[in-house]
UniProtKB/TrEMBL annotation:
<comment type="similarity">
    <text>Belongs to the multicopper oxidase family.</text>
</comment>
<dbReference type="InterPro" id="IPR008972">
    <property type="entry name" value="Cupredoxin"/>
</dbReference>
<feature type="domain" description="Plastocyanin-like">
    <location>
        <begin position="542"/>
        <end position="688"/>
    </location>
</feature>
<keyword id="KW-0732">Signal</keyword>
<keyword id="KW-0325">Glycoprotein</keyword>
<feature type="signal peptide">
    <location>
        <begin position="1"/>
        <end position="26"/>
    </location>
</feature>
<dbReference type="Pfam" id="PF07731">
    <property type="entry name" value="Cu-oxidase_2"/>
</dbReference>
<feature type="domain" description="Plastocyanin-like">
    <location>
        <begin position="165"/>
        <end position="311"/>
    </location>
</feature>
<dbReference type="InterPro" id="IPR045087">
    <property type="entry name" value="Cu-oxidase_fam"/>
</dbReference>
<dbReference type="Pfam" id="PF00394">
    <property type="entry name" value="Cu-oxidase"/>
</dbReference>
<dbReference type="Pfam" id="PF07732">
    <property type="entry name" value="Cu-oxidase_3"/>
</dbReference>
<feature type="region of interest" description="Disordered">
    <location>
        <begin position="909"/>
        <end position="965"/>
    </location>
</feature>
<dbReference type="InterPro" id="IPR001117">
    <property type="entry name" value="Cu-oxidase_2nd"/>
</dbReference>
<dbReference type="InterPro" id="IPR011707">
    <property type="entry name" value="Cu-oxidase-like_N"/>
</dbReference>
<feature type="compositionally biased region" description="Pro residues">
    <location>
        <begin position="929"/>
        <end position="953"/>
    </location>
</feature>
<feature type="domain" description="Plastocyanin-like">
    <location>
        <begin position="463"/>
        <end position="526"/>
    </location>
</feature>
<feature type="domain" description="Plastocyanin-like">
    <location>
        <begin position="786"/>
        <end position="908"/>
    </location>
</feature>
Amino acid sequence: MALFGDFSRLIFLLTVLTLFSSVVNCEDIFLEWHVAVDMTINPASVDQPVITVNGMFPGPLINVTTNDNIHVNVFNNMDEPLLMTWNGIQQRLNSWQDGVSGTNCPIQPAKNWTYVFQTKDQIGSFFYFPSINFHKAGGGFGPIRVNNRVVIPVPFSQPEADFDLLIGDWYKQNFKDVRSKLNTTSEAYDSSPDSMLMNGKGSYLDPLAKAHESFTVTPGKTYRFRISNVGIAWSINFRIQNHRMVLVETEGSYTNQIPLDSLDVHVGQSYSVLVTADQNAADYYIVASPKLVNVTEHSPLVAVGVLHYDNSTIPPNGPLPIGPDPFDREFSVHQAQSIRWNLTTGAARPNPQGTFNVSNVTLSQTFILHGSTAEIDGAPRYTVNNVSYLTPDTSLKLADSFANGSGVYLLDEFSANSSRPMSVNGTFVVSGKHKGWLEIVFKNDLSVMDSWHLDGFGFYVVGNGIQQRLNSWQDGVSGTNCPIQPAKNWTYVFQTKDQIGSFFYFPSINFHKAGGGFGPIRVNNRVVIPVPFSQPEADFDLLIGDWYKQNFKDVRSKLNTTSEAYDSSPDSMLMNGKGSYLDPLAKAHESFTVTPGKTYRFRISNVGIAWSINFRIQNHRMVLVETEGSYTNQIPLDSLDVHVGQSYSVLVTADQNAADYYIVASPKLVNVTEHSPLVAVGVLHYDNSTIPPNGPLPIGPDPFDREFSVHQAQSIRWNLTTGAARPNPQGTFNVSNVTLSQTFILHGSTAEIDGAPRYTVNNVSYLTPDTSLKLADSFANGSGVYLLDEFSANSSRPMSVNGTFVVSGKHKGWLEIVFKNDLSVMDSWHLDGFGFYVVGFGDGNWTPNSNSTYNLYDPVVRSTVQVYPGGWTAVYAYLDNPGMWNLRSQILKHWYLGQELYVRVYDPDPNPNKERPPPGNLLFCGKIDPPPPPPSTPKPIPAPVPVPVPDAPLPASATTPQIPW
């Protein structure tokens, strides 16, 4: 029996070892490299030294598999010290092999050293290069492929072949000569490379180039191009004549697969795209052109290669394929934002990438890194937070391990959160919390593109109408947030959860909106969700609003008088903050340039204070397609009413004769002439036009024609058949058979209270307490700040009062809101946290029988709706978003003087997936004091101690753009 038991254990052990070996299966790859300088290659058609690896430029491919061990014995045959680094290889648990000055001592001339590292839990496209002494400007780079293990499926069919394509700008001078001149301001800040190479070769269009790059393909086959920008300075735009690309991977992450006509690749980045040879047998141009610089197609800064069909006898011809304008930042940012992680596929491991995400992480630290320039000790330098890194003679890793850093660097001497008042040279080393989440905000204070890389890790690149799903803590109004005090800062972290569309942001307290501070928000569709119209040539943001010529503080100070509170109005109308084209005193006017035959999307928002507007473009019809996150039935329009706080998207086709045309926005319910400062006039400029706009301004409807405005509002219907933020049609969620849980009937009016003019809701004028409602609700159950349901949301009080108006909304119940406007001016109402269905408009009094006139079939969903003078508007809202939500007039004076309330939607479930907990950086104010800080942690000995790092906000999305303001 004992023998049998031992035998069983042996079988079990062998089974485990077999399974382990099948999972961990890895190989040892041994490479011997001789790094030298070669004077015969002449990639830029001039004699110059080029750094080669084994006589090759670019160097040899490192072609390995996940978890392989790579041994690279590097012989330095140059005349100065050398280090090689592996861009994107994370060196798991082994920074000794990273190959930069802080981790490794250089390999001296005529010496060798062996790097030994593992591609642990990685796949993807990367490259290597020499990391010190400006060597990268002389070459020495080459491609790295880390292939999937065979047991891990790849999320696309096996391509016919993989092509490595290393593209980068290049100096025609000796890299040592360039390096020696970097102590002068002109070379350090203003000089730039002379040419662009593809795999170390010149342009196909350059008759002096010794060689050009060419890739041979077979018709009908698909190929994987692994593209890396190995350059020195310029970001590039990459494209292939007549061929679309499909993005599939970037630096070890499989992406959502998006089709591309061109791809921006910034310095140090790597991408994989699939290209199918689906054109006629011929040769086609492959092009990489620099960003932020104007070049012609024959410029040496435009790299040109060839895609050669193996049965082709036709050389490439025609103009080079056109990319985006190199200065079109919007294109580049939009494309970057569209590159998303494929959450459902595995990569280095079989479990989906999305099983590890940032939707609910708690940040341990935040670094805010400002990149800038400075003159330090008379020399030009680049800085981070006004510190320019000085490389010590001793590697940091060596000093850390053998001398606790002593005499080499002082840990956390410099701040990673703020800039020093004076620029200094220093060895900048900061603490990162082990197994903590770090947020890094890169701030570029330069006028050129910057690009950052973090060794050892991959990182997640992470308003009005934004619904703040499950997270009213980030809503940015007085009831949810304590104000940011002067000279302080605070970070909002929110997610555009299940939303698309056109919105805007603005300052919400102290009448600040009258002084500006607003800007546009676009929430684009995910690439997997089809948009119900063809891709426009470009999107234009157009923020239109009335404006006071006085200081907003002066206007605010006068609102305690009846004349200012009720009768005054703004003086002018602006388009994107600019005056009218017809105003000779205006410093600037707005103009949009279009190409004949192309269609453009105008995202129009009324960011104003008081006036609704009518918008129109001379001789051009518009097609309405979207409003505040809802795709609409597409209706043609000659003009469009846009009420305060509303946003719309219209398509405009440049289908007229080449000329310039007036763009006009005029106020509703006021008589104006075309030269009135209350008429905003911009220009639609055809790019081949030499004719200024002429003739009378296009005529809109009578500004007092209420019937036109109501009829247009009723014609704006929800597109029931298209998807929006989700793939299922919008119409799968509708109001045709809902059961109402509550009805609010809200009368907007005015009153004199304690001798001061106020605006009211049901005869209650909102008073803003010192303590935010959400703070009081969470920490004191509202005690001493507000009394829930003290005021009725169904009827008006007999006497007007000031009060903090908070009502209960039933969680996951249907709420009907009837807005009744008792004033003689247009009103406009907004509900934070939700979109509502606009089901009806009417005149006079609303009664329960008025619902017989409702449109319950295809009412549009939006977050801001107009209420006509003396009339009513009805909406339905589904209260599935727990939180404290602001319901307000969008007319700024009405809001500032009390026409608002809050709807508390309470879910007793404490699950943070139902409603987010308070953020880690929560601001406190009024009656609620911050909790005492936790006890300090004793200093460990002998390791250096990190500086304390303040808590940071909870990220809300796996893609988290950082926007420092």
